[in-house]
Amino acid sequence: MPERPGPKKTIEQIAEDSGTYPPEAYEFVQAGLQYTVERLHAGRHREKGQHVSGRELSAGLREFALMQWGLMARAVLRRWNITRTEDFGRIVFALVEHGWMSKTEDDTLEDFRNVFDFATAFEEGYRIECKS
């Protein structure tokens, strides 16, 4: 399998070109992908390029955001113009296009469509865990 080329543009350049999401949104998705891969593939022999589907990544990004910001997660994401799971997909595919991430032939933007409703996912049923 050939190595993929390195990034063509910086995160800042990608964000500037898109004009939709700030650099922090792209950095969040990258960090959230790493978190999701580690969570999904924990305890397994680490393989290069372990795949995560759009649905799995959306769920992982939700969990990652709640871990970082709790009930403020939706507000933080909204500030970055991320209001639907499709926004996660647009960021992912911009990162793929510029060599920051990779995808399989079967991965599409449609994989991110309506994975969950942000109001429900970030506000209903959220619990703060207290360590005793």
Structure description:
Helix content is 52%, strand content 0%. The model has no long low-confidence stretch (mean pLDDT 87). With 132 residues, the chain is an all-alpha fold. It has one domain. The radius of gyration is 15 Å and the shape is globular. Helix 2 (23-40) crosses helix 3, helix 2 (23-40) packs across helix 5 and helix 3 (54-69) crosses helix 4.
Please, how many helices? 6
What percent of residues adopt helix (DSSP H or I)? 40-55%
The average pLDDT is: 87
**H/E series:** HHHHHH
Secondary structure class reads mainly alpha
Rounded Rg: 15 Å
Note the gap between the termini. Answer: 49 Å
The number of strands is 0
Strand percentage lies at under 5%
Describe the biggest sheet? Answer: none
The 3D shape can be described as globular
Q: Which regions are unreliable across 5 or more consecutive residues at pLDDT < 50?
A: none
Number of domains: 1
